[in-house]
Design a protein that fits this description.
76 residues, alpha+beta, two-stranded antiparallel ribbon, 2 helices
Length: 76
């Protein structure tokens, strides 16, 4: 039994959804232009990237990668 999840770049016409922020536990050092923040669902430290601004302007909710995937699969 497998799970199919479609992850693709956002289009200019996309609205809503979830934007993934990499978890600090997976990328401890981050990158110079990334800002350390916390996931609004689980509170774990994650990295806010400059590219996420486009998704936010389209109504997406920025979550850590694990919460975004969980929300995308279960809706919870």
């Amino acid at each position: 039994m497998g799970i199919n999840v479609k992850i693709e770049p956002r289009k200019a016409t996309d609205r809503g959804g979830y934007a993934c922020m990499p978890l600090k536990k997976n990328i401890p050092q981050g990158r110079p232009d990334w800002e350390l923040t916390s996931c609004p669902i689980c509170g774990r430290e994650c990295w806010r990237q400059p590219l996420i601004e486009r998704a936010l302007s389209q109504g997406a909710l920025a979550l850590c990668t694990e919460c975004a995937i969980r929300k995308g699969i279960t809706g919870k």
